[in-house]
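A.,

Following up on our hallway conversation. Structure tokens first:
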């Protein structure tokens, strides 16, 4: 493990941002009509990946991105990160980094969980309190109920949850500008309920939250713009604190956009969200990476990226060791960020079952173009994004064999006894 005393001032800061329920089609840089000028600029001055894939649902993606391990090997159940899991925060903290998580938690209600999983500080929604309060009102947006460093903090003066979280992160960045830091920002936006933001004419600062779940999908583009605005605040703070040039930022989503949303693209298409689905609508997410002077500028990559790849990538960027005994599934794409060939994936493997049971799990392996399910169904996604035409025997035999081999290699990796034991305190 790298010494905490070695060149601390020269170590890069790392910020991992993961929007909630935001597919690739909701970002302007990917052709969306949603207004996301900050992310668009990040893409223009950094690197955009056109083939990044998440799990179809939030908790599975959160477990994968934080641990670098396939859900097939460590996913227990919805709302849970196994207690014995090692996260990227552990690795960075052990290497001398200040660590912070702010945004949405949804990984267990133990008050000490964020600190246990390697985060020095936390500002969270849905940590140890439920999603709604008395009367069934959602607690994340207007006048939110948050948990800050394990303490309940209720806001009652017209505050907006995402703004409070961004302000907390800005304060953390400025307080730690003299030493390296890791920020994990699993955003509250753009998950439903779809509601007005403080920048919309019908914003109500007296609102006690939306009473219900979905809200009105017409607000989604405005919420996407507010999400972008919060990222802009973080970047502005990095500049004001004098650390923008030494900070690596990665932005992605935890799954596809929610199903009520239909996003208008600049070419006139409308793309329906497919959260919870194994199709591209549920798994294809944006990935934008920016680090001035380090990450290639204006580059668009077609390399395959899986959420498990984030842990080894940020560790390589910061020269933080990943212990061999973690046996992660992720593959670093840091070399590609700096213009080197690296070792891009030929295919990705996905195991998905929200309740964690082996029975009923959905499994596929895919390249950029082709996708094979464990059921044998095979699709050419480049021509059939909605997966309507099973190619069957007409599928390219070499690609099919390669994808089948990847599925077969992972067939026996799920050990429920081991996974359950990993949740013991």
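Then the amino acids I'd put at each of the 425 positions:
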């Amino acid at each position: 493990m790298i010494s905490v005393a070695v060149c601390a001032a020269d170590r890069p800061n790392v910020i991992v941002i993961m929007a909630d329920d935001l597919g690739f089609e909701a970002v302007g840089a990917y052709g969306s009509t949603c207004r996301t000028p900050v992310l668009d600029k990040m893409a223009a001055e950094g690197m955009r990946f056109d083939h990044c894939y998440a799990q179809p649902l939030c908790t599975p993606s959160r477990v994968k991105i934080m641990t670098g391990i396939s859900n097939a090997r460590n996913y227990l159940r919805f709302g849970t990160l196994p207690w014995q899991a090692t996260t990227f925060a552990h690795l960075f903290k052990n290497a001398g980094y200040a660590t912070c998580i702010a945004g949405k938690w949804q990984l267990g209600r133990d008050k000490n969980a964020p600190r246990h999983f390697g985060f020095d500080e936390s500002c969270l929604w849905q940590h140890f309190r439920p999603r709604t309060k008395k009367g069934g009102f959602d607690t994340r947006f207007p006048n939110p109920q948050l948990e800050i460093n394990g303490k309940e903090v209720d806001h009652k003066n017209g505050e907006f949850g995402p703004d409070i979280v961004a302000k907390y992160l800005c304060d953390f960045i400025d307080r730690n500008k003299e030493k390296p830091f890791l920020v994990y920002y699993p955003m509250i936006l753009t998950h439903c309920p779809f509601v007005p933001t403080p920048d919309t004419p019908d914003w109500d600062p007296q609102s006690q939250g939306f009473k219900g779940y979905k809200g009105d999908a017409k607000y989604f583009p405005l919420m996407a713009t507010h999400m972008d605005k919060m990222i802009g605040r973080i970047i502005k703070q990095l500049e004001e604190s004098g650390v923008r040039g030494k900070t690596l930022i990665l932005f992605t989503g935890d799954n596809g956009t929610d199903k009520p949303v239909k996003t208008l693209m600049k070419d006139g298409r409308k793309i329906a969200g497919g959260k919870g689905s194994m199709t591209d609508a549920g798994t294809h997410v944006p990935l934008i990476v920016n680090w001035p002077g380090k990450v290639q500028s204006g580059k668009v990559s077609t390399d395959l990226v899986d959420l498990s790849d984030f842990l080894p990538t940020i560790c390589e960027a910061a020269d933080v060791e990943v212990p061999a005994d973690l046996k992660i599934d992720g593959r670093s794409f840091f070399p590609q960020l700096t213009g080197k060939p690296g070792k891009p994936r030929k295919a990705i493997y996905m195991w998905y079952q929200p309740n964690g049971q082996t029975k009923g799990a959905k499994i596929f392996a895919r390249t950029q173009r082709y996708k094979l399910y464990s059921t044998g169904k095979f699709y050419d996604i480049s021509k059939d994004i909605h997966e309507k035409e099973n190619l069957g025997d007409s599928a390219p035999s070499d690609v099919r064999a390669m994808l089948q081999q990847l599925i077969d290699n992972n067939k026996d990796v799920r050990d429920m006894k081991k996974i359950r034991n990993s949740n013991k305190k």
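The chain has two domains: 11-346, 351-421. Curious whether your intuition agrees with the design.

B.
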